[in-house]
Aminotransferase DegT
Amino acid sequence: MIPVLIPSLPETDAIIPYLRRIDQARIYSNYGPLSREFTDRLCRFVSERAGGAPVAATLTGSGTTAIELALRYRIAGRGGRLCLMPAYTFAATAHAAVNVGLEPFFADVDPETLALTPAIAVRALAAAEGDVAAVVVVSPYGAPIDIAAWEAFEAAHKIPVVFDAAAATLNLHRVAAQPICVSLHATKALGIGEGGAILTTDTDLVAQTTAMTGFGFSVSSRVSEVRGGNYRISEYAAAVGLAVFDGLEARIRQLREASLAYVSGFNRIGVRMQPGFGTDWLTMTIAALFEPAAAEVVTAGFDADRIQWRRWYGTGCHVHPAFATCRHDGLARTAAVAAGAIGVPFFPAITPEQIGAVCGCVERSLAAR
């Protein structure tokens, strides 16, 4: 069997030097020295890829928590009960909105990019009848977000925007005041096991959301200035993160080589992928894009050849029982997008032979239609 994904974190020997630092400091959580160092390295990494813009970050216990805290900060004092977001996203996006007291209002996505666009959002606002408190824009499978376009959207409509960029940590070519929420889950290209972060140029946002991760305490007191909880990462998670950064350039090279092999293989047989994948951006959960009928033929071929596959976002959040009563804009294209986007095997150690087997299976399945 060719697995669809094999998470890959640093091995024990790479983490041990950082564990020894924990032993020496006897600090295990509460924004310890490793957590602060990991935050600094994350900010520098993102800043370098975003053209040198200064970046600040709040570390969180998960990517979902990052979205929750960013939403809580951005909707404070605002009216509205709805959170506009694409239906085509992982369920965590909708759960985050519900957890801060908002109701998801699901919108359609562009079939080429798989993303919510400002134009689609404007149409959805009309259907939502003025009750939208915030918009969550999702980076589908880690694709870059047009942040400038969403800055213009927010300025025009006076509705705060939060970015769910769970898988896009390697692909943040621009950072602005609007919060970018990333996941540090083991399945991500920059993963530490469990964790997340809010990235932004807004230092006030970082100060407030960091306080939220520690019971709302300010830096210098144990008084809850804002409502929060315990959403921090431990020093052990930070140790894994520092070891990840030590080997990250090698991992990026692996991901790029494997990505380009897929791009070449699928281009040869006329299979689409997301625009710019492999050349402009990288991720760990990749999707081949088909018409729905072709997707069914391809997945049957995968099953016959013992090649694992996934519909990473399922058929959309609106079909989950937890969100079945949520309103939407009609979702004219979502069903076809969800049916046709097939997650294929991808992980740092995937071999050229395995990629060739996946592409060959797709070619045979399409030829036999």
About this structure: The CA atoms of residues 143 and 168 lie 6 Å apart.
